Amino acid sequence: MPTTTDPSIAFLQRPLRLYIDGAFVETDGQLATLNPATGETLAMAPLATEREVDLAVTAAARAFETWRFTPPTQRARLMWSLADLLEANKGEFARLEVLDNGKPLWEAEAVDIALTIELLRYYAGWATKITGQVLPNSIPGMLTISRREPVGVVAAITPWNFPLLEVAYKLAPALATGCTIVVKPSELAPLSTLRLMDLVHEAGFPPGVVNVVIGGPEVGGALVRHPGVSKIAFTGQTATGKEILRASIDDLKRVTLELGGKSPNIVFADADLDAAASGAFGGIFFNQGQACVAGSRLFVEASVADELAERVAEQAKGIRLGSGLDAETQMGPLISQAHRTRVRGYVDAAMQDGATVSAGGADASVAGLDGGFFFQPTVINGVRNDMKVAQEEIFGPVLSVISWKDEDELRALANGVDYGLAAGIWSADTSKALRLAEYLEAGTVWINTYGMFDVAVPFGGRKHSGFGRELGEEAMEPYLHSKSVWVDLQAAVPSAGQGISR
Ligand code: NAD
């Protein structure tokens, strides 16, 4: 029997099933999903095999033939219904996210669930606004039209750090454009996605339009290789993204990749240091540092570097760790024991490379939660950009502070990583910040703020952080084909009374 610290979530007491072709499907296999705050099993999730992947893609392909022609107003209404149902159950979803992922409840409420609801409504609005064009051509008597048509079955493969939200980033544009979808959430936090299928069912989506399979790399791999899939929308590690791209080549599937990051958060000496300190703090410790946009390299102009690093370290030491369900908790556990070991390895490597730890640096224990995967919020000083800790994505609450003197040198350092996801700049001189923003190799630059997101503003990476955009109008493009239609307006047509019986 699953154990949970929140008895109000009846969902966890139910046998959990896949969702394929409008039906809840039992599986032979199961996989345990843990509560990272306790290390205990939270629930047994249904484990798919290649067979269920095939059933799901086949159902989605069949449903596509109808869904693509379903009036956009109707698709939009169904999406609105799903958003309304989610809003009506938002407290439960937020708690589920906390139990499965570990994040603080306020964060799950304000970010994960709130943004998921907004996303569904925002893209429901787009369903009726996907237009084509009448194109000018230079051939007399010819009309040329460009149509935009849905690509087909989408495979959405998502990570565990924002479990439901990462699914919504793909589900919402897929549904709005008339695609059908097979979702494979992370095996480490699949519960909110499974619960969402109750609402998809209740909202009345036709069978096969939305399907969910659960499993790890084998199940993801089967989905990627399936010839019935037209587009893969992937978020996860860069190494996985490359593997998926390679596996998609034979069928020339469309692929968008939202991958890792190692984002620079840059502070000029003229910045409002209170704001910069709080931006540096939130930039790295939000979501336990398990955010692709984590501002994990703090570049501070030398004259204020010690002062700023000390402020952030003092704040870090004061962070209250605990269960995400505890209202006092500021930071929850990491996702797993293996991940905590990996994060600790980076801190050890930094110390071996000659850097110094000014806050944290080790596993943390929380009273009453002995089995939890807690890690101390960590600040490392004296980091050089060529150290492992400054080059590789840690995906944990570990901040590297690097001081700089010369702006040309800073530009090279900031861009001197494989990744290109996001960046922050703190300065009282907006013109200077804007000039620097032009040089930064990043999909998003925040000036005097950090980590802002909005449903209407595209987000994505460059370099090893991937390609494609989520959010905004731009995010629908990979879900659409364009088709050029030629009409000869001078072709002989029956004139009135000829060949037409009245
Ligand atoms: P991961 O790559 O280990 O797993 C992501 C998903 O891919 C999971 O569902 C997993 O089961 C599946 N998968 C793994 N191997 C596969 C394979 N060979 N074929 C098909 N599917 C496979 O990533 P993770 O640890 O779950 O997530 C953390 C990573 O996600 C970090 O690198 C983070 O930066 C990145 N991320 C990026 C963004 C972004 O928008 N750029 C957002 C969130 C997270």
Question: Count of helices?
Answer: 14
What distance separates the N and C termini?
A: 72 Å
In which range does the helix fraction lie?
Answer: 25-40%
Mean pLDDT: 96
Give a quick summary of the entry:
By secondary structure, the protein is an alpha/beta fold. It is 37% helix and 21% strand.
Q: How are the SSEs placed, and which strands pair?
A:
Blueprint lengths: L17 E3 L2 E3 L3 E7 L4 E8 L2 H18 L4 H17 L1 H12 L3 H23 L5 E3 L6 E9 L2 E5 L5 H15 L2 E5 L6 H13 L6 E3 L4 H9 L5 E5 L2 H10 L6 E5 L5 E4 L5 H13 L11 E5 H16 L19 H16 L3 E4 L18 E4 L6 H4 L6 E7 L2 H9 L3 E2 L1 E5 L3 H10 L4 E4 L14 E2 L2 E2 L12 E9 L14
Parallel strand pairs: 7-8, 7-10, 8-9, 10-11, 12-13, 12-18, 13-16, 15-16, 18-19
Antiparallel strand pairs: 1-2, 3-4, 5-6, 6-22, 11-21, 14-15, 17-20
How would you characterize the overall build of this protein?
- It is a single chain.
- Helix 12 links the parallel strand 15 and strand 16.
- The model has no long low-confidence stretch (mean pLDDT 96).
- Helices cover 37% and strands 21% of the residues.
- The chain has two domains: 258 residues, 3-Layer(aba) Sandwich (Aldehyde Dehydrogenase, Chain A, domain 1); 184 residues, Aldehyde Dehydrogenase, Chain A, domain 2.
- The chain has 502 residues and is α/β, with parallel strands linked by helices.
- The chain has 14 helices and 22 strands.
- The strands form six sheets. A seven-stranded mixed sheet has the order 14-15-16-13-12-18-19, sandwiched between helices. Strands 9-8-7-10-11-21 form a six-stranded mixed sheet, with helices on both faces. A three-stranded antiparallel sheet has the order 5-6-22, with no helix packed on it.
- The site of nicotinamide-adenine-dinucleotide has 29 residues, from helix 7 and helix 8.
